[in-house]
Write a structure and sequence with these properties.
The protein is α+β, with helices and mostly antiparallel strands and 315 residues long. The protein is built from 7 helices and 18 strands. A 7-stranded mixed sheet has the order 1-2-3-7-6-5-4, covered by helices on one side. It has a 5-stranded mixed β-barrel with strand order 8-9-16-12-11. A 3-stranded antiparallel sheet has the order 13-15-14.
């Protein structure tokens, strides 16, 4: 048991994190120097009754009803004020989601609403809104020997030479019950993604073993926008269409204005679209065609990674 005031160190989204809250969803990490991000906890406040976000005094305040208030400042500090009686898993869910989304925008990074897998030493990200099947597709790749880099949020930055890099995210997949069972998994022993005493949510957190996760940043090899359509098709996007797809699939894109990073956000999207192939993947989202459509997507990937069959990240 840790002594009062003792902290926990983690690495996520390419950042060194020192937290007053224990975050079991992350693997403990050891690193040198000062943290990039500190997470503090204030005594429980009055219950947060209404959800919303507002900017004040250079910070962003995110209220999640019946869960917590998160104050995010300078791209380097998050203060958590839990609502009395809030479930700790719900607090961590929004800490690692909305609160970190605000912090990433404050740092002028580009968080995408995407999963990413590692192929041939590069990251390939699959973007889409909630329900687009990102995690289900990532689980399909995982089950065929490919390693996972990020789930739900894939953070992109640029190195000193202007090349895009994808940073490791959370070591888990988040699957609906039907997708979970169709992949041969069982919900037994898994935590639901959100705890609601009024009703059960059938979305579950599926841990990914450390040997199946990539824990280092990778160059970005391609972006795929997942869409539901009547028939399967893959189309290469270019120019403004590619940039707009990136903008549309930015994680917590509504926070950009509050973070005052509109110009950097637009420039990053345009730059990324210029140097990275972007494809629209139109799928039927029917379980009976799922494997066939994914196999056709894998064929498309083979045109980008010619040695695809030998490109699975070692486990």
């Amino acid at each position: 048991m840790r002594a009062p005031g003792e902290t926990h160190d983690y690495s996520v989204f390419g950042l060194k994190v020192r937290s007053a809250l224990e975050i079991p969803e992350l693997e403990p990490a050891r690193w040198d120097g000062d943290p990039d991000v500190t997470i503090a906890q204030s005594p429980p406040s009055q219950p947060v009754a209404v959800s919303g976000m507002r900017a004040a005094d250079g910070a962003m305040r995110i209220d999640i009803a019946d869960v917590a208030r998160f104050t995010v400042s300078g791209g380097e500090r998050i203060v958590v004020e839990p609502s009395p009686g809030a479930d700790p898993r719900n607090i961590r869910l929004f800490l690692l989601g909305s609160a970190f989304g605000a912090l990433l925008h404050q740092r002028a990074l580009l968080p995408l609403h995407a999963n990413a897998v590692a192929i041939g030493g590069k990251a390939f990200a699959f973007m889409g809104q909630s329900g687009a099947g990102k995690s289900t597709l990532a689980a399909w790749f995982h089950d065929r020997g490919f390693s996972i880099l990020a789930d739900d949020v894939c953070v992109i930055g640029f190195d000193g030479e202007g090349e895009p890099r994808a940073y490791p995210g959370l070591p888990r997949l988040r699957l609906w019950l039907d997708a979970l069972e169709s992949s041969g998994r069982s919900a037994d022993g898994l935590n639901r993604s959100y705890v609601d005493p009024a009703r059960q949510h059938d979305k579950f957190d599926v841990p990914v073993a450390s040997e199946a996760m990539v824990t280092r940043e990778l160059p970005l090899g391609g972006l795929f926008v997942l869409e539901q359509k009547e028939s399967f098709a893959i189309e290469r996007l270019s120019g403004m269409a590619a940039a707009e797809a990136i903008i549309a699939n930015t994680y917590r894109g509504a926070y950009v204005a509050a973070a005052k990073t509109q110009r950097q956000h637009w420039q990053s999207a345009v730059k990324l679209a210029r140097v990275t192939p972007v494809f629209a993947v139109r799928r039927t989202m029917r379980f009976e065609t799922f494997n066939d459509e994914n196999a056709r997507l894998l064929e498309q990937l083979s045109t980008i990674v010619p040695t695809l069959c030998d490109s699975r990240e070692p486990r």
